[in-house]
Amino acid sequence: MIVIRNSEDHETAPDQAVPPGAVVVSGSGRDRGRVYLVIASDPSFLFLADGDKRPFSKPKKKRRRHVSVKGQIDDADALLDKVRNVKVQADQSALIRKELTGFTSSHGNL
User: Fold this and answer.
1) Residue pLDDT, tens place only, 44-54
2) Beta strands 67-72 and 60-63: pairing type?
């Protein structure tokens, strides 16, 4: 039996652009269910940070089809510039954790 799926079956189509500053949830892998901030992207992959296991300096590289987009951080460009300008890795991670915590608490259960 052949099952044909359309783009409505997937929350994020592989060719759909995911901008930096988007909040995503991992849908596969051992990090399934973990919330990340997109810090960069290329045509096939997203580079994700959560400020805990994945700091800004060592982002997780994950295929677009393995995440679902939950929303966008307000003024994401300013946040990412602020994180880039901080020299201490612990402070970068703290900024990312603060934004993700605020997003998840205001948007309910992800």
Assistant:
1) 999 999 999 99
2) unpaired
